[in-house]
Amino acid sequence: MTAESIHETGALLDVRGLTKVFGDLKACDAVDLVIGKGEIHALLGENGAGKSTLVKMLFGSLEPNAGTIVWKDRPVRISSPAEARQLGIGMVFQHFSLFEALTAAENIALSLDDNTPIRTIAAKAKALSHSYGLPLDPYSMVGDLSVGERQRIEIIRCLLQRPELIILDEPTSVLTPQEADRLFETLERLRDEGKSILYISHRLEEVKRLCDRATVLRHGKVVGHCDPRQETASSLARMMVGSEVKAVDRHADEGSAGGERLLEITSLSRKPATPFSTPLRDISLAVSAGEIFGIAGVAGNGQGEFFEAISGEIRQPASGMVRICGRDAGHLGISARRALGAAFVPEERLGHGAAPAMRLSDNLLLARHATDSKRYLGALGTIRREAIRESARHVNEMMDVRKSGEDPAASALSGGNLQKFIIGRELDREPKVLVVNQPTWGVDAGAAARIRQALIELARSGSVVLVISQDLDELFEISDRVAVMHNGELSAPLTIAEATFEKIGLLMGGAEPGPAAHPHAAETETEGAA
Amino acid sequence: MGMAEAILLTVATAATPLLIAAIGELVVERSGVLNLGVEGMMLMGAVAGFGAAIMSGSAWIGVFAGLLTGALFSLLFAFLALTLVTNQVATGLALTLLGIGMSGMIGESFVGMPGVKLRVLDLPVISDIPLIGRLLFGQDPFFYISIGLVAGVMWFLFRTRAGLTLRSVGDSHTSAHALGIRVVLIRYCAVMFGGACAGLAGAQLSLVYTTQWIENMTAGRGWIALALVVFASWRPLRVLVGAYLFGAITIMQLHVQAVNMADLVSLPGPLYWLVSVLKSAPSQLLSALPYLATIVVLVIISRNRRLTIMNTPASLGRPFVPDR
Predict the structure, then answer these.
(1) Residue A49 lies in a domain
(2) Nearest beta carbon to residue B175 from set A84, A98, A143
(3) With 60 as the cut, is the pLDDT of residue A470 above it?
(4) Same domain? A139 vs A222
(5) Do A129 and A39 share a domain, yes or no?
(6) Are A313 and A269 part of one and the same domain?
(7) Half-sphere exposure of residue B286, counting CA atoms within 13 Å on the CB side?
(8) A164-168, A447-451, B31-35, B184-188: which range is least confident on average?
(9) Is the Cβ–Cβ distance between B225 and B59 less than 8 Å?
């Protein structure tokens, strides 16, 4: 199906030559997009391909430098979100545009342009949410809600404006598989009611399942249109990336696990530090040499707190709660834990994993000044520049970090390249224990594959890798065992052979799996009977 | 007029300027802006109010001059901090320093001149009701303005759509911007409201509290107003409690310093003992007592961390540059 054939039948939205320039970067370069009535249209592309910029222009939050937008055969200029809403364009944001200190109903009221009383809005929102099977308490405080519930508020808020076109930006990135299924049902129902949906995602399987047509963006340009149902996931990936994505090679790592227990966590508990943070509840875990252990879970279920506890950013009251390479480490700080052979890669690249304004070589020293002081520091603590630059060069080569200049500032690198550098910086130390939080979040497919391959190789060399990730595909691709973190509790681990998307999804939603999914529980019961 | 009644009337007079300045700053901070220039804006309001009153002969013209000057002076802060996106802390401090210097310069010729006192409200018959008559119906107009402001701000912030919008801007300016709310415009309005309140509070000092112009006559009340807002967890009623506590202890310590112990022998034992201990303390410590006690009490009542976090404007003091 071509764009022209839709155009003849009367498109809802017809975008021609839309361009947005930020400094030297053409975020969108003469983009054409046609959306028909009653279709779910996918917008595909890697991170940084210009998807978010494009939809922000359609919703009036960014002003295009060139190009026309035709809405129902009439050229329009959308200069504010209020104008977009008046035309009938609604948006569900990727990073939610909600206010944590306000109630759901107040959040909804803020985007309705008339002066309807809050009580009326609450009643309407409740009725609408029930009719779509997305139950919602309009008087609950957003700060107390899960990410899935927050998304419901965004969707209900959007639907209350009676839009004809709904834009969803990466809506499933924070949902459990079951929540995502529910969302798809809602979207299909909306399409049957004649509404159009622009669906932005980089998850190819769901695009194949849900969408009628797709427009693919690469480096700000439209590189193709297709019917996703006729394509395979790998042909879609090829269109997005522009080249083949190398599959991760994980053969021959069976049987490598079962060695020495290099990372042991025993009855780790932690009280919540703020009203919105999650307590850790009695977490126990042991990972053996050669093993990759995955921790799944919806964001905000204690993963950040767990990472801080293992890395030593927060020390434990009992030294035996965390053991690294057979030594008690609970009382130790970050540098001492690193000295025992552990390495840590936090979730946020800029500001946590690396100091944005500092050069790569400085960032390397910051992470390793304590563990490699002999190599990098001279007498009186002077910095040995040449040795550090040499290491940085080695890291960049090993991980194929693409950058401009010899030693640029961390903030000058793209997300994927900076993540490769940070992981490479830790791998270069040949750690016995590596703990990574969201290793490939917001990273392009090529870099993600390189990072996963590096993690597998580290485990194969006899180290322990603990991966905390929201991306189930990733965990299934690289882990030997998986456990799920929900509300600060860790489920019993499942081997990758016994884990399925469905089981993991149920655990992520907080449901107790059946006895079949819990072989250890069944064992304990028989023991008790005997 | 009995002694207790007189003391209570002076407590209200001492609390009112703090309350007016703090309730204005509360609105500013609820919109996510930290304006540390309260002290400077109060001084500008005080000198303008005093000058306008003696030149026109009307205290009411002085009141409006104070209000207007405060609002205009805060516009300078708004332009720097919101349009040019300068650092809010540094800009606010600069505004205070500028206000101290400028008010001193303008007011040089006013020093020692008698001012114009704003008349107290005096309703016949009901002001003569014993005890509560004067307290409720015989105060200066600023008292009624301050109480009206607290009620008005509470109603605005928590009962109107415009107030909800203002709170949303303070909670997350990026989310507000994404929804098409005009963040900078709302913050300009909030800052100018805060400036007008600070100017009004300053005018109260030079038109009611002392009825003269003294250089730097706010004596740190702007800073106390700022502290009140934070320790009151950005809640209007707690600001009211804090301001009156401060006023009460200010007046009490003045009386303790002035009283003759021989007149107090009739007091109950513990009270007599307390007064004698306070009297034996250095006078500097007594003068510091209102500041100390107010902060201690507000810290104790803001112990509920959940409530505090729910009411803290999450974007407070953070610079906002919209991308277009």
Answers:
(1) yes
(2) A98
(3) yes
(4) yes
(5) yes
(6) yes
(7) 18
(8) A447-451
(9) no
